[in-house]
Amino acid sequence: MSVPQQDGAVISDAPSLSPSPCASSSTSPRTTSPSTTSLHTPSLPAWTRRAVHIGAAWASTLALFALWALCTRSPAGTRALPSPAEVAAAFVTMCDEGVLWPSVRVSVLRVLTGLAVGVALAVPAAVVSGASRLGDALIDKPVHMLRAIPFPALAPLLIVMLGIGEAMKIALIATGAFALVYVNVRDGVRAIDPGLLELARAYRMPRRAVFTKILMRGVLPQFMTGLRFAITVSWIALVTCETVNSSAGIGYLLARAQQFFRTDQMVLCIVLYAALGLLSEWIVGALERLAHVRG
After folding, report:
1. Which of 16, 76, 244, 265 could disulfide-link 257, Cβ–Cβ 3.0 to 4.6 Å?
2. For the segment 204-231, what is each residue's pLDDT rounded down to a tens digit?
C-alpha cells in the first residue's frame, strides 16, 4: 500500500539502492588469490614414492615372468619350455649338488679380470688416438678391424696363441671390452673444447692438472657409456669362452645341460646370465652417480 507523500519527504517501500560498506562487504562475492583457491594435495611419503618407483621399474619384468608362468601351465610332457617352478627346483638341486655357486664365482671372476684388462688397455690407447693424428693413424684402424671379428672366429686364434687355459678366456673377454671402451673414450677426447686446453696452456697449468681436471672430467660420460656396453659384451664373450675346455662356470653348466637335454637347467643358466648382467648395470649406474656427485 502506498503512503501519501508529504512536502519535502519521499517515503517508498523499495529498499535503498545506495551501497553501504557493510552491505557491499556481506553481499558481494569474495575475490581470492589463486594461491588460496588452489587445491593443496598432500604429498606422498618418501617410502611410498620409492615403492611406486620400484614397482614401475619392475612392472615389465614381472609381466614377462607372469606371461612365462601362464604359457607353461600345461603338463610338462606337452611343452618344450620349463615352468618357473621347474627352474626354481633346478636351482635348488644344483645348489644341493654344490656346483652352482662355485661356477657363478668363477664366471664373475673371469668377467671382472677380462674387463679390467680391457679397460686398462683401452683408456690410454683412446687418449692417444683422440688427441693426436699420429695416434689415430696407428691405432684406430686396427681396433675397428678387431671389432668386426666375431668371438667364435677369434677364439680358435687365441687358443693357438695362448693355449686352452684361463689366459685365452680372459683375453677373449678383454678384447670385447677393449673395443667398446676405446671407441667411446676416443670420441669423448675429440669432443673436448679446444678452448679449454688453450686456456690451460695460457695459464701454464701442470699437465697432471690438465689431465685430471679437463681431460678425465670431459671424458667421464663417454667412458661410463662405454663401460656399460663393455660389461654386456663381456658376459656375451664369457658364453663363448666357457664352452671351450671348462670345468666350472655358468657356460660349462649350460653346455652340460645341453648335452643331457636338461631344459630346466638351461633356462636357469640363461636367467643367471640375465640377473648378473642386470646387477652389473646397476653397479655401473651407482658408480656413475657417485662420480657425478663428487665431480
Report:
1. 265
2. 777 777 777 777 777 888 999 999 999 9
